[in-house]
């Protein structure tokens, strides 16, 4: 079976590559349909590593996937061949302490697609635990199903924030994750979400949604825009999604007294934090690492029509053009949000 293989830093190939594995009683076999290209896939391609995760051997990329069940293990009852599904890419040890606490995303033993040495899903077929495979309602397309993964991070951030109806939120950073967070915050009850970035094309894309306002920080500071929007009081929730040092440092200025700060963006290196600024408003700090127990909710929001992620799919490329798709992702065009790869039928 042909897969998209990261041979080493900077070198991709489409070639025969069989991922070892057998279908266990609690597993399903899935024919993959759509796979989104994620910033982490691109980072492994350009840098060969993320933090202490280093690509030492050829690795299949991709972790944002939807597809069709083609075979089920003997113990699987909630899925059947023919079901359209999307897959949660992180598989914890269900007996771990973290999993027992419901925080399986921080299980040290979690196996996550396309995180070395675990292979990803840019391959025609995958075997996956049925418990981490979710049926797509009729109303949710394969393309949207593959958006459940990045949207799940937005969902995790919205849940961490403990949004109350009518909250005003600000999102710093209009990358794909910042956009997902903004939409999840709206779905979670925010009255208004202000998105701050310096790339106008990105702001135009997310600003087209009802309930979202934008500020280009080349023209006006995020703090100024928040002050104008809230009569100087500050935002109830600040979602930091840029990972940029100045944005992290400026977070306390955006929040209202007693507000919440959710750290979503991941700075490449440690960055300074204004602790006194946080203390002076007694801000509550939350962090997000991937997600747990949000896939059902993410899919339900898409199916209900309350969250429409289709405008964020910038292009879908056939699998044969997957390498060109990755090179386009490396370009990081300001008009691209999510690029997806469609597998051969
Ligand atoms: Zn992703």
Short descriptors:
345 residues; alpha/beta; Quinone Oxidoreductase, Chain A, domain 1; Rossmann fold; seven-stranded mixed beta sheet; six-stranded parallel beta sheet; 11 helices; globular; SDH-like; ER; zinc ion binding
Spans of at least 5 consecutive residues whose pLDDT stays below 50 are none
* Mean of all residue-level pLDDT scores: 97
CATH architecture of the largest domain, please? Alpha-Beta Complex
Q: What is the CATH C level class of the largest domain, in words?
A: Alpha Beta
Shape estimate: globular
GO molecular function, one term: oxidoreductase activity, acting on the CH-OH group of donors, NAD or NADP as acceptor
Cofactor: Zn(2+)
Pfam families: ADH_N, ADH_zinc_N
Organism: Pseudooceanicola albus
Please describe what this structure looks like.
The protein is of the alpha/beta class. Helices cover 28% and strands 29% of the residues. It folds into two domains: 2-147 and 309-342, Medium-chain alcohol dehydrogenases, catalytic domain (Quinone Oxidoreductase, Chain A, domain 1, Alpha-Beta Complex), CATH 3.90.180.10; 153-287, NAD(P)-binding Rossmann-like Domain (Rossmann fold, 3-Layer(aba) Sandwich). The strands form five sheets. Strands 3, 7, 8, 11, 12, 19 and 20 form a seven-stranded mixed sheet that branches. β4 (49-50) and β5 (53-54) form a beta hairpin. α4 packs across α5 (176-187) and α4 (148-161) packs across α10 (295-304). The radius of gyration is 20 Å and the shape is globular. The two termini are 13 Å apart. The site of zinc ion (ZN) has 6 residues, from α4.
């Amino acid at each position: 079976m042909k897969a998209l293989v990261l041979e080493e830093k900077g070198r991709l190939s489409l070639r025969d590559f069989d991922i070892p594995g057998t279908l266990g009683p609690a597993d399903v076999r899935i024919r993959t349909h759509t796979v989104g290209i994620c910033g982490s896939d691109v980072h492994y391609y350009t840098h060969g590593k993320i933090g202490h995760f280093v690509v030492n051997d050829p690795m299949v990329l991709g972790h944002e996937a939807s597809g069709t069940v083609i075979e089920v293990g003997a113990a699987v009852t909630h899925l059947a061949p023919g079901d359209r599904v999307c897959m949660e890419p992180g598989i914890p040890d269900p007996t771990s302490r973290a999993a027992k606490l419901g925080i399986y995303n921080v299980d040290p033993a979690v196996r996550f697609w396309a995180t070395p040495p675990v292979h990803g899903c840019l391959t025609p077929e995958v075997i996956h635990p049925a418990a981490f495979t979710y049926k797509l309602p009729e109303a949710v397309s394969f393309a949207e199903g593959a958006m459940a993964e990045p949207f799940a991070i937005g969902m995790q951030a919205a849940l961490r924030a403990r949004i109350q109806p009518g909250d005003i939120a600000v999102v710093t950073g209009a990358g794909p994750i910042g956009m997902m967070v903004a939409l999840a915050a709206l779905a979670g009850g925010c009255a208004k979400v202000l998105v701050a970035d310096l790339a106008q094309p990105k702001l135009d894309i997310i600003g087209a949604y009802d309930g979202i306002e934008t500020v280009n920080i080349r023209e006006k500071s995020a703090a100024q825009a928040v002050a104008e929007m809230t009569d100087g009081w500050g935002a109830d929730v600040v979602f930091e999604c840029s990972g940029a040092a100045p944005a992290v440092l400026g977070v306390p200025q955006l929040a209202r007294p007693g507000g919440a700060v959710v750290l979503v963006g991941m700075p490449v290196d440690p960055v300074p934090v204004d602790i006194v600024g946080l203390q002076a408003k007694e801000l509550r700090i939350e962090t997000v690492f991937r997600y747990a127990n949000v896939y059902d909710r993410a899919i339900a929001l898409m199916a209900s029509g309350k969250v429409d992620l289709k405008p964020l799919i910038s292009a879908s490329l056939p699998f044969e053009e997957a390498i060109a798709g990755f090179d386009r992702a490396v370009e990081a065009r300001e008009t691209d949000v999510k690029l997806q790869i469609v597998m051969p039928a």
